[in-house]
Amino acid sequence: MNSSAPKSRWMSRTAVNGFLVLAVVYMLFPLVWLVTAATKDTGDLLAGNAFSFDGFNLGENLSNLASYGDGIYFRWYLNSLFYAGGGAVVCSLICVAAGYAFDKYEFRGKEKLFGLVLMGVLVPTTALALPMYLLASKTGLVNTYWSVLIPVLVNPFGVYLARVFSTGYIPNEALEAARIDGAGELRVFWSIGLRMVMPGFVTVFLFQFTAIWNNFFLPLVMLSDRKLFPLSLGLYSWNTNTHGEPSFYPLVVTGSLLAVIPLIVAFVSLQRHWKAGLTAGSVK
C-alpha cells in the first residue's frame, strides 16, 4: 500500500500536467499562427506556408497596413482604445460604486433590486442590440461614438462581482472610523472604499475592456461611417473583401496581430493589483 501511494500520486500529477500542457498548446496555437502568418505576403499565405519564417515580409505588411485607405486602420485602432479604455474605466467605477452601495447600505427593496440586476446577467447582449438601436435612433445617437459608448457603461455582472469584492475587502470598521472623523459618504467611498476594493475594480475593468475590445455586433448595428468603426468591425469589413481581392489577406492577418497587443499589455500590467490585493480588507 505504501509503495503504491507515491506511484499513484506521480500518475495523477503527470495526468494533470499533461492536460495543462495540452491546454496551453491549444490556447497558444492560434497566436503562434498569427505571429508567423503576419510575416507572409499574399502568395505564401494562400500557399499554406504560414508556419515558417521564410520570406519574412512583416515590414512591408506593416507599411501597407499604415498606408491603406489613408491610414484608416490606425483610426480604427484609436476608436477601439477610446471605446474599450474609456468605457471600461467608467463602467468599472459605476459597477464598484453600485456594488459598494448594495453591500454597505441598507435601503428598502435592496435585495429585490439586486435580484433585478442579476436578471440582467441572464439577458444576452445580442438580444438588446435592436432595442438599443431603436432608442439611439429616437435620440439621434445612431452612427455616433455615443451609440457604442453609452451601452457598454452598464454591466450587471460587474455590479455582482463588485458587491462580492466589497464584502470581502472593505471592513465596516474602517468606514465607521472615517465617518467618526467627519468624512462624508462620498469621501468615505472615494478615499477608503475604492482604494480597498481596487483589485475588484481592476477585475471588472479587465472583463469589460476585453468585452468592449472584442465587441462586434453592437458597432455593426449602430455604425455605418467607416471612420467610427472599431477594429473588430473594420477588420471584418476587410475580410469580406478577401475573396475578391486576395491582397487583403496580409492586411487582415497583420491587423489582427496588432489588435491583440492591447489585451496582452492590459493583463500583464494590471495583474500585480490582483496579487497585491489578495489579503486586502482582512480584519483580525
UniProtKB/TrEMBL annotation:
PROSITE patterns linked: ABC_TM1 (PS50928)
Domain of life: Bacteria
The keyword Transmembrane helix appears for this protein: yes
Transmembrane segments: 81-102, 114-136, 148-171, 192-213, 248-270
Ribonucleoprotein listed as a keyword: no
Keywords tagged on the record: Cell membrane, Membrane, Transmembrane, Transmembrane helix, Transport
Principal location class: membrane
Bilayer topology annotation: Multi-pass membrane protein
Compartment(s) where it occurs, according to its Swiss-Prot or TrEMBL record: Cell membrane
Residue ranges occupied by any ABC transmembrane type-1 domain in the UniProt entry: 77-269
Family per record: Belongs to the binding-protein-dependent transport system permease family.
Annotated protein name in UniProt: Carbohydrate ABC transporter permease
Source species of the chain: Streptomyces yanii
